[in-house]
Design a protein that fits this description.
The complex is a heterodimer of chains A (about 475) and B (about 450). Chain A has about 475 residues and is an alpha+beta fold. Chain A has a domain at about 215-365 and about 380-485: Beta-lactamase (3-Layer(aba) Sandwich). Chain A has helices at about 1-30, 30-35, 40-50, 80-90, 100-105, 105-110, 115-125, 140-150, 180, 185-200, 220-230, 270-275, 280-290, 295-305, 325-330, 345-355, 390-405, 465-485, and strands at about 55, 60-65, 75, 135, 155-160, 165-175, 240, 245, 255, 270, 360, 365-370, 375-380, 385, 420-425, 435-440, 450-455. A 6-stranded mixed sheet of chain A has the order 3-2-1-4-12-13, with helices on one face. A 5-stranded antiparallel sheet of chain A has the order 6-5-17-16-15, sandwiched between helices. Chain A has a two-stranded antiparallel sheet with strand order 7-10. In chain A, β8 (about 245) and β9 (about 255) form a beta hairpin. The longest helix of chain A has 28 residues, at about 1-30. With about 450 residues, chain B is mostly helical. Chain B has a domain at about 140-285. Chain B is built from 17 helices and 5 strands. A 3-stranded antiparallel sheet of chain B has the order 1-2-3, with no helix packed on it. In chain B, strands 4-5 form a two-stranded antiparallel ribbon. The radius of gyration of chain B is 23 Å and the shape is globular. Chain B: It is a multi-pass membrane protein. Chain B: Keywords: Cell cycle, Cell division, Cell shape, Membrane, Transmembrane, Transmembrane helix. Chain B: It is found in: Membrane. Chain B: Its main location: membrane.
Chain lengths: ~475, ~450
């Protein structure tokens, strides 16, 4: 009978080995997959259990968690909800998380790899685990000024530091109140969320880095001018034909300058510098065609087009078409056809020009601090590319200064500070309202701020408005918050 | 070895039995009780943030009861196995701590508190174990009651089908209700049936291991000897069909099969039995919607349709989420969210413990079971007669199989069936039955060690 007993013992051991293996597979092998399943409410509740870290701007919280007496134990609170909503994003029970709340969730909730020791520590001491705080690069003065200056327009203002890529202001309008979505009442969150989704003005979209991207219009001429100077075949003073209208090859369509005539202040030919200052389309259409779509594409990519950035939210990639015929290339040369850009991308173009041609990777994260104020991450500037040479950058700067001092970008002039800038008015189709742009930097001789302003929907003026008075003045007001002090 | 020396041993024992085993047991019991109290305190600190002396003192009382059994055994079963009592105590206490933890989360207090009931039932079960050890001084007495045990087992098994007595909970009809008290007689039935199988197989082993026809290199029993296995199979299928309890049906048939194999040494019985299980599985999957659902839940657990379906895989998947949430080291007692999973205090207690104690805790608990079962099998090896051997292996194996069916179901090795996890899960009948098993194993081990091995020398 002992022989049989032995076999039964082996069977029992086999049972338990099976259970050891199955438990291991679930608890250690598959645990990440199981945690990521969106039906796993434990993952969601977990993010509420620990006191979520704050999101800070200049040491002041723009999002923080306060203890409350319910199952979720902490209530997320946004003290300046509208101004920062596109940056903080929202933190909801049932509708996910966006913005910094989403992109830095692991750090804020204390579950990132670098916080492992803290978690062990809180297990051993029995203390509630705490998330890390995320310190942003934003300058509250500029953010407030950008919010105020944009007024009731739908659009965005982005300010970056050219030498580092740090984002100093990032405003998107219309905005929303993330406090409403942070409620612990799921029904009210869902109805508020659905109302925001249904709102035709799309308040949930961060226009500075995403959404239905706008054609950049004339601000894209900076990229074309950069490609021209980089090609070695052109200088700022190179002459281009200056007709009053230009028939697109193989098409009925005609390209005109904004004044429906020749580029102002020039005769049969016009220099690149003049054409940029007066923002004339025809010379740039000729120039783009001469450079060729491959050269334009290569230059656009060096500035960051056709790429996404993690700031740490994932930005929508601005696009420059990879396949175009000649007429399309000519339209793309003044930022029309299928060229699309985020304000952040255009700010990167200006910043690169301000920074001797170096494109810095944009970011919002200054530092990440664990609850003991030990730094888990500190910002260091990283270069994305050398888009243009320092000489080209200097030459473009000179042209942009000229544009502000003597050209269409005059609305951005600040007394006592030299501003470099470029306006843009992009068409969105027959009868559709224009998109207004301004991009530039200041002070021109020692650039500290690169700014881009986007005003969608024609600023409410349909096809009547002008980019200078609208977008240029906004830029001026924002820059004055720091430079006019 | 001289006859004189061996013959003197029983006499010496009568004068002053060696208490070495009991001393080891005492040390382990103190450790187990300390762990149990610590677990309870951790639960309170984790889930309440403060120490509540009420539950602690109740569990202290349980520890006193266990110590009473221990002291009694110093007199009536001094040579009994030293590990069984501490292991059962530890599992019982961990179960109470986790049940209490979920009570806190669900807001169960007073008589709604399952932990409170579990403590009361534990006291009762310990009383039962005490009675078994005190009353049954020699386990072979049980062999005389083979058919009484069989009758009791079958009656208990069928009791829930009596109208007005049996009640249906979560789709299964395995409970009986007397007043406000509910009881799962099938749990006690497994003890009675283990005794019955052991007694019956001792008598019938010669007939059942008779050479039959050889087929595929294996000697199969004669057709006329198939009666018993078919009866047990029919009984198990009856439980599955009429009480809608897949787990209990599987448990009994598995128990019988293994005991039959040990008794006869014929692998052909196992083959026949597995064949019957296969037939049963196919039939049940075909004609019993609840069994079919169990299979579907098992194979397609993560499919959204099955997850959302009433009686679908929600519970299974939530259990997996809980286990994954625990990970390697667990959330810590009182810090997880085991209460999200349905029936987290009974059928899913292992997932609850796995969430809060992690894979390490699950391994520790499984090791405790393995050790417990191992002690039981060891008693089987040491037994001098067939009845002792069969009874020991039956009692040990029924725990092993039950753990495998429950934990295997929770961890998706096999389809989920509703069974209690021995000693851990909330449920009085299960506690009483398993403490009876522990007491019987203790009695067996003492009797076997105490038997003079003089037979060889004659």
């Amino acid at each position: 009978m002992n022989r049989e007993l032995k076999r039964v013992s082996f069977l029992v051991i086999a049972f338990f080995i099976t259970l050891f293996v199955s438990a291991s597979v679930i608890q250690v092998g598959q645990d990440a997959n199981l945690s990521a399943d969106d039906r796993n409410t434990r993952t969601l509740y977990d993010s509420y259990r620990s006191q979520r870290g704050a999101i800070l701007v200049a040491g002041q919280p723009i999002a923080f968690s306060v203890p409350v007496d319910d199952n979720y134990r902490f209530q997320r609170t946004y003290p300046a909800p509208l101004i920062y909503s596109n940056v903080t994003g929202y933190f909801t029970l049932s509708q996910g998380l966006t913005g910094i709340e989403g992109a830095m969730n692991r750090e804020l909730s204390g579950t990132s790899g670098s916080q492992f020791l803290n978690r062990i520590n809180s297990i051993l001491t029995g203390k509630d685990p705490q998330g890390a705080s995320v310190n942003l690069t934003l300058d509250p003065l500029l953010q407030q000024a950008a919010w105020d200056a944009l007024g009731d327009y739908a659009g965005s203002v982005v300010v970056t530091e050219p030498s580092t890529g740090r984002i100093l202001a990032m405003v998107s309008k219309p905005s929303f109140d993330p406090n409403v979505l942070a409620s612990h009442n799921t029904d009210s969150v869902i109805s508020a969320y659905n109302a925001l989704l249904a709102d035709p003005s799309d308040p949930l979209i961060d226009r500075s880095i995403a959404g239905n991207l706008n054609p950049p219009g004339s601000v894209f001429k900076l990229v074309v001018a950069a490609a021209a100077l980089e090609s070695g075949q052109y200088t700022a003073d190179s002459q281009l034909d200056n007709p009053s209208s230009l028939q697109l090859p193989g098409s009925d369509s005609v390209v005109s300058n904004w004044n429906r005539g020749r580029c102002p202040g020039a005769g049969a030919t016009v220099t690149i510098k003049q054409a940029l200052r007066e923002s004339c389309n025809i010379p740039f259409a000729e120039l783009g065609l001469a450079l060729g779509r491959q050269a334009l594409l290569a230059q656009a990519k060096k500035f960051g087009f056709n790429s996404s950035f993690e700031i740490p939210m994932i930005t929508a990639a601005s696009t420059f078409p990879t396949v175009m015929d000649d007429p399309q290339t000519m339209l793309a040369s003044f930022g029309q056809f299928d060229v699309r850009a985020t304000p952040l991308q255009i700010a990167m173009v200006s910043a690169a020009i301000a920074n001797g041609g170096k494109v810095m990777s944009p970011t919002l994260i200054q530092s990440v601090l664990d609850p003991t104020l030990t730094s888990l991450f500190d910002f260091t500037a990283t270069q994305y590319s050398q888009a243009i040479s320092a000489e080209t950058a200097a030459s473009l700067t000179e042209m942009m200064v000229d544009g502000v001092n003597n050209g269409l970008a005059g609305n951005a002039r600040i007394s006592g500070v030299q501003v470099a800038g470029k306006t843009g008015t992009a068409e969105n189709g027959v009868g559709e309202p224009y998109t207004f742009w301004f991009t530039g930097f200041a002070p021109a001789e020692d650039p500290r701020y690169a700014i881009t302003v986007l005003v969608e929907n024609g600023g409410g003026l349909g096809q009547e408005g002008l980019s200078g008075p609208i977008a240029g003045s906004i830029a001026k007001q924002v820059l004055e918050a720091e430079l006019g002090k | 070895m001289s006859t004189q020396l061996t013959a003197s041993i029983p006499r010496l024992k009568r004068i002053r039995p060696s208490q070495r085993m009991r001393n080891v047991e005492l040390a382990l019991l103190l450790a187990a009780s300390a762990i149990n109290l610590a677990a309870l305190m951790l639960v309170q600190l984790g889930a309440l943030g403060s120490i509540d002396l009420g539950p602690l003192s109740l569990c202290g009382l349980l520890a006193v009861l266990v110590l009473a059994i221990h002291i009694a055994m110093r007199f009536v079963a001094p040579q009994a196995d030293a590990l069984i009592l501490p292991i059962a105590t530890l599992l019982n206490g961990l179960g109470i701590a986790e049940i209490y933890r979920i009570d806190i989360a669900l807001g169960n207090t007073g008589w709604d508190s399952l932990a409170f009931k579990q403590i009361a039932w534990s006291a009762l079960a310990l009383g039962g174990a005490f009675a078994v050890i005190m009353l049954i001084r020699q386990h072979r007495v049980l062999q005389r009651y083979t058919y009484v045990a069989g009758l009791i087992g079958v009656v208990l098994l069928l009791l829930p089908m009596v109208p007005g007595l049996g009640i249906e909970l979560n789709g299964a009809r395995v409970w009986i209700q007397i007043g406000t008290l509910t009881f799962q007689p099938g749990e006690i039935a497994k003890v009675a049936l283990a005794i019955f199988f052991a007694g019956y197989l001792v008598q019938a082993r010669d007939t059942l291991s008779m050479v039959g026809r050889t087929f595929l290199g294996m000697r199969f029993p004669r057709g006329r000897d198939l009666g018993p296995i078919l009866v047990i199979w029919a009984l198990s299928m009856g439980v599955i069909v009429f009480e809608r309890d897949l787990g209990t049906g599987l448990l009994f048939f598995g128990l019988f099969l293994v005991m039959l194999y040990v008794a006869t040494g014929r692998l052909s019985w196992v083959m026949l039995g597995l064949g019957l299980v296969a037939i049963g599985a196919v039939l049940a999957n075909q004609f019993l919607p609840y069994v079919h659902d169990r299979f579907l839940n098992w194979t397609n657990a993560f499919s959204p349709a099955i997850y959302d379906e009433n009686g679908g895989s929600y519970q299974l998947v939530q259990g997996l989420f809980g286990l994954a949430h625990g990970g390697l080291i667990g959330t810590g007692l009182g810090q997880g969210m085991p209460y999200i999973t349905p029936v987290s205090q009974s059928d899913y207690i292992i997932a609850s413990l796995g969430e809060e104690l992690g894979l390490i805790g699950v391994f520790a608990i499984l090791c405790l079971y393995l050790l417990l079962v191992g002690r039981g099998l060891r008693i089987g090896f040491a037994g001098h007669d067939d009845f002792s051997k069969l009874l020991a292996v039956g009692l040990a194996f029924v725990i092993a199989l039950q753990v495998f069916i429950v934990v295997g179901g929770v961890t998706r090795v096999i389809p989920l069936t509703g069974l209690t996890t021995p000693f851990l899960a909330a449920g009085g009948s299960s506690l009483v039955a398993n403490w009876m098993i522990a007491a019987l194993l203790l009695r067996l081990s003492d009797s076997i060690r105490n038997e003079p091995r003089l037979v060889v020398g004659q």
